[in-house]
């Protein structure tokens, strides 16, 4: 995965993600092809994760690129990639994936700042997980 062309091209997952506002759906097969591999395996998952990280991207569900958790990766398995820019989307995904290292109430309040506060923090987190399919 290389940086998108300066003309804003979307021929890579990273380019499509940035052009799409910082979020894009992809598959392990597409990511594998971008790196030039013919087959998926544990080492290829690690290479994909490293490449996305180098591009400043994160992904979810996180287990899809974990060689320990995804012991039978398939090219059709989908995941979402997002720009790790510190914005609200990035913070919300961080809260879901690693709540111990985040200020959960602050992130959830930021997410729902323009909405009624009828939900508890747990209810908000449950809603976010549902939206993200985690």
Describe the structure.
This protein has helices at residues 13-19, 28-34, 42-54, 88-97, 104-111, 121-132, and strands at residues 23-27, 57-60, 78-83. The chain has a 3-stranded antiparallel beta sheet with strand order 1-3-2, sandwiched between helices. 43% of the residues lie in helices and 11% in strands. It is of the alpha+beta class and 134 residues long. The two termini are 25 Å apart. The protein has 6 helices and 3 strands, in the order αβααββααα. The protein folds into 2 domains: 1-84, no CATH class; 86-134, no CATH class.
Summary, kept brief:
The chain has 134 residues and is of the alpha+beta class. The protein has helices at residues 13-19, 28-34, 42-54, 88-97, 104-111, 121-132, and strands spanning 23-27, 57-60, 78-83.
Q: Which SSEs are present, and which pair or pack?
A:
Layout: H1 13-19, E1 23-27, H2 28-34, H3 42-54, E2 57-60, E3 78-83, H4 88-97, H5 104-111, H6 121-132
Antiparallel strand pairs: 1-3, 2-3
Helix pairs in contact: 4-5, 4-6
